Amino acid sequence: MSTRGFVGIGTPTQWSGRYNHSDSYPTGLGAEVWTTAQRFFSDDQHLHGFAHRLLSVTDWRQMATHGICEYCGQRTGHPQSVSGLIAVPFLDRTALPDTEEALRQQKMAEARQYHWSGERRALMTQEVHDEWQIVQNLRSCGYPDPDACYHEHDAEDPTASAITPDTCDCLFMEWGYVLDPDMQTLHVFVGGIETPITCAVDIIRPDGTHDWWHDKTRYTGALVGSYPLTAPEPDWHAVDQAGQTVCTQLEKDFAAHPDHPLLASVRALPLVDVWDQTALS
User: Fold this and answer.
1) Which DSSP string do the residues of 233-268 spell out, in sequence order?
2) Which 3 state secondary structure label does DSSP give 109?
3) What is the pTM of this model?
4) Each residue of 219-268: pLDDT tens digit?
5) Are 105 and 179 found together in one domain?
6) Same domain, 144 and 167
7) Where are the beta strands (DSSP E) in the chain?
């Protein structure tokens, strides 16, 4: 399961961050952010280069590639999903065609069955060529696209993908790492802290219909600790444990003190969350 998080630039209260999809635990992403920041600091004696590169990309994974897609070489948003679908569903690897010609014959049969147009038939040769590579991948390793040849990119504008204190969904952002270039300090946040505050969720389905979820729990996040880059590297296992302790203690505090100051920002959120899925249609 992916452990999502973010890496940001700023202070504990004001920052702009970029998404990280997996292994955002302190022992994973935390250690990686620390090592990367130390490298920039060692080379430049400051962290402006780190900040500039992070804010110029759309995803933490692009830091190492300078914003260049590792799959196709484009300077663009990171591909959040990689797929390789073929038109004919082969559920059994033994049923996969043995040759490209066998795949072409299956496509021709499909063309006759579904009465493909002349224009659609004209594209079949290229489709067979493209799909044959996927079939070969399935035969060899069971995965349709091991080299991620078939993928789509997110928006190229880094600011469009920014995560800020106002947009951070603490249910999904399980860990966060904010680098303060002026203080030369790494602030570590933990998310997923359950609160007694609830909301309704309006789910707009791709067909335009609405589903409603009522009394859905709101979540928040909190600062675990601040670690100067001039000090020895933190014990990331201990940071992880400290984050878990913060979550447990705050959930108890929230239950005992509904007026807890950390709940003020949660109460200020809209009473209804809208999950618009029409873009998935």
Assistant:
1) PP-HHHHHHHHHHHHHHHHHHHHH-TT-GGGHHHHT
2) helix
3) 0.71
4) 999 999 999 999 999 999 999 999 999 999 999 999 999 999 999 999 99
5) no
6) no
7) 5-10, 15-20, 81-82, 151-152, 175-180, 185-204, 210-228, 272-276
